[in-house]
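FAQ: What does the model actually see?

It sees only this:
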Amino acid sequence: MRTVRIGPEQYEVLFQVTKEFRGLAPATVLAAGAGPDQVGQILALAREIRRHLGGGTVDLELTAGPYPADPEPGPEPDSEPGPEHGPEPGPAAGSGPADPRPDPYPAGPDPALPVHVVGDGVRVRVPAGLVATWRALALRTIPALGARELFLRTGYSEERAAAAVALLAADPPAG
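And it is asked to produce this:
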């Protein structure tokens, strides 16, 4: 089993790029070989890692086998909730208007990918295919945003973002 080790500063850069996946066009997501559920799972995993990271390293232990994409289709975006669900809740008082757009990549933490705290770092076993998809999406996010927008949204340059994303490579760098 190969382990991808990411330092805390590099993970913060990777996390900032990852959270921008929500802005990717569906065609870009498909071109990266991902489905909406995979994007949601990557976002949830990235958040879960960050929540537990105490300044140490992130160790992604790559496991063999595919990662299930879109295991259960959700409701159609334009479908109305059934009467058993009741009305949609409105925004909380003082919170401003609700975002009328549905979340295109909903998913919570995957219990099959538990994040283990090890000292001040974390370790998680994750299918190599999911890490490859994470990398493919991140590599498409950087040029999709462009240098200026990437910096404004993440606080990092294209070079720094690309260096962090390169750590997700399936094979260790030559050298």
